[in-house]
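Milestone M4 deliverable, item 7.
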Amino acid sequence: MSLKLYNTLTNQKEEFNPIEKNKVRMYVCGPTVYDKCHIGHARCYIAFDVIRRYLEYCGHDVTFVENFTDVDDKLIRKSNETGEDPFEIAERNIGDYFRDMDALNVKRADMYPRATQHIPDMIAFIERLLEKGDAYVADGDVYFSVEKVADYGRLSGVNVEQMKAGARIAVDEKKRDPLDFALWKKAKEGEPKWESPWGEGRPGWHIECSAMSLKHLGETLDIHGGGQDLIFPHHENEMAQSEACSGKQFVRYWLHNGFVTIREEKMSKSLGNIVSVEDLLQEYSPETLRYFLVASYYRKPIDFDEDALEEAKKAVARLLNTVDLVKEARQGDFTGESLSTDHYRQQFQEAMNDDFNTPAALAVLFELARDVNRRIEEKNVDKESLENVLNTFMELGGDVLGLFFEVKHEEFSEELLEILISVREQVRKKNLWDISDTIRDRLREIGIALEDTPEGTRWKFVRD
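Output delivered:
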């Protein structure tokens, strides 16, 4: 079964065929860095992290670009509210973003272009639109002329005539049409500004992603992703101005992830129900939070509540415990029947090939977990099979779904650990049980469990 993606542009699943065989140009709209990341951001970036990982697992060379919007109305508003420099706000929140996404095992993009680093590219883009007659200058502002796009609205499905009928142009606006959108905004007092052929100002939101994706990925992208809230107006306007500029198709496959609600209510500042990733990671492990988001089909809405997180905690623990059990079993004396993982791999791929159906893919891993757990309990599996099972879990659950985090212990040294175990054995021989127990307990605190056996002391990494 070939990989099929649900394309928002056509509202149907389509077989994935990149422009260049085995090479994928992928752009995902990154955050506007005026505040900390919340659970909705995590949903988006984990969803596209899984998509990227699976494309790479299938043998594609993926160039993954994700931007930072570091000049924008929201940043300026936050600066005005707090008195802090907008660029300092952006820098701090970019740092927090990397901290949170690293914790959630989201792979770093190949590039993280910032809007403020691409002002000349945006100006050049706008100049091309002006030359083509698709934009116009109005007293220092530059607008894109929507009426030039015959099929405007084909991505989002908006009815242009109905929108025009309900739209109003304020007295002080210079737009020719209520649907026209700003490519360049004339400088206002106290706002960040740059020199341009039309006077000092700053870019509009939509032009930023068009210019950055063109710069780093070319005129046509294989995949453009983001949350469903970006379909209109952001992605609709991106597509309109990019295709007007190049005369080519802007994106072959538009992918959008579903919303996150909080106890069936939309997240909003007015309701005070925005949950930050930073706060969540104080209460739940990153594996739990990632599992909670991966366990839902990326296009569907997902409702966040504490009960759902507790269920995710139990579920991911079952998988992680199976991985630990298989690792430990490899050290034992197992000479039973072989266990092939080919069937499980095939089922996993069939699930993921169906528009990245992660719930079905996880069901396959749980089926494998039940099978291998039973065989280990019965000691009816050979060591070669255990190795294959472990590799299957680490590739599918780890490399693709990103659930089995690499255990990281700062300053961890296996040689030092062996010395500690040797010292502990010596103090045990002298009946210094308090010291022995202290060594064992302190190691347990940093995730290393000791097990005393007739053959000697064994150690392993453990998870709470």
